């Protein structure tokens, strides 16, 4: 038989290397596959926390030690603003109880509230200026009219009551319900602008409880004062009607007119002044 064996045993003692799926894989140790705890990061964060606490405590202690040297008594009060109705002395006297405090302990809010209680002060701003100064900026009331017999109105229609009203009798006098201060002031401003080109000014404007408006002009270049009865509504339209008729008809006779009733829908009624009786000639008396 001439058969030849193709498979020959290996010449040495080495085992053949497995192929395919039968090949074994060397595994890593368990200690290498389990992640190590981040112990170093924890101690780092803890160190930063301790450092921040220590730094904060140091700043607090330093501030407590330096505060007696930095918190100085108030030595200067600087009052700013255009003051026409109140004096610097009156302001200083008003805030005297607060000035005894130190720079950091002075109560600025209470000082501002106390200043704004003064009748002539509309608004107050108070601030500290290092190292020992307080700056006060004041805005005074701007009186535009009298409100009734005991108060004044500013340009915002807000009433305030100064001690003396005798010096403000030249201002127009406005009347109305207490809740209607701003409404009366706004109506006064509108009607004043309409009457001013005619040479009239408003001496008195009244809003009565039932809603009717009564206006009295002041004596001036246009003549003596007259009373305008305006009614409850459409005041601007009625005033335009009065102006148109005044220029055409009433202007030449204004000195004889006492009142004009504008409560009609399409016209007006004129009330004439009473003519003064001419003086009688008295006989001369001879003296011995």
Automatic annotation (TrEMBL):
Transmembrane ranges, per UniProt, are: none
**Where does the signal peptide begin and end?**
none
Region (Disordered), start-end ranges: 1-27
Source organism superkingdom: Bacteria
The record's section on InterPro entries has: Cell_div_FtsQ/DivIB_C (IPR005548), FtsQ (IPR026579), FtsQ_C_sf (IPR045335), POTRA (IPR034746), POTRA_FtsQ_type (IPR013685)
- Show the Pfam families listed in the entry: FtsQ_DivIB_C (PF03799), POTRA_1 (PF08478)
Q: Which residues form the POTRA domain?
A: 72-141
- Fetch the HAMAP family from UniProt: FtsQ_subfam
Q: How does it assemble?
A: Part of a complex composed of FtsB, FtsL and FtsQ.
Q: What does this protein do?
A: Essential cell division protein. May link together the upstream cell division proteins, which are predominantly cytoplasmic, with the downstream cell division proteins, which are predominantly periplasmic. May control correct divisome assembly.
By what name is this protein known?
Answer: Cell division protein FtsQ
